[in-house]
Amino acid sequence: MSTALDILLVLLLAIGCFFTFLGSFSLVKLSSFFLRIHGPTKASALGVGCILIVSIVYHTFYGAGLHPREVLITVFVFLTAPVSAILMSQSALSLMDNTPIDPSHTPDPEAPIREDIDNRNTRRGDEPQDAADTTTSGPQPPRAS
Predict the structure, then answer these.
(1) Has residue 76 been placed in a domain?
(2) How many domains does the chain have?
């Protein structure tokens, strides 16, 4: 019984460590805020939950008995991770100027660039063409002969 329990605890601990690593890796590697919030809240909650279940089972069978703090931590993690993810994504959506772009709509790559956003489209007459155009106008000093 003890060997089977040890193997089960090691497997749960390995699964918990994998999901915790996966959640932290997704926080670093994913690009947008909404993708970054998904990994840590889902995967890390599952990983920490597995690690806490291992702790509960280990202390129940090998330690002093079941401690209510581990059970409360597990319940707290599983209740607060999804709620915090929902609140952070709702606040990020409220701070956005527009709603997210509809994925079924693809932008036209040949569309004109708006003038108020891209100021590279200036008139050609305003810019000097070469170094000769940069001289000042007005009376020129006489040349020495």
Answers:
(1) yes
(2) 1
Residues 6+ apart with CB under 8 A from 141: none
Q: Whole domain around residue 76: which residue ranges?
A: 2-95
Contact 37, 83 (CB under 8 A): no
Please report whether residue 19 resides in a domain.
yes
Taking only the tens place, the pLDDT of each residue in 40-93 is 888 888 898 899 999 989 988 888 888 888 888 888 888 888 888 888 888 887
How many other CB atoms are found less than 10 A from the CB of residue 55? 19
pLDDT of residue 109: 61
Residue 9, classed as helix, strand or coil, is helix
In a domain, 131, yes or no: no
Is residue 29 situated within a structural domain? yes
65: left (phi over 0), alpha (psi -120 to 50) or beta: left
Output the 3-class SS for 16-82: HHHHHHHHHHHHHHCCCHHHHHHHHHHHHHHHHHHHHHHHHHHHHHCCCCCCHHHHHHHHHHHHHHH
CB atoms within 10 A of CB 41: 22
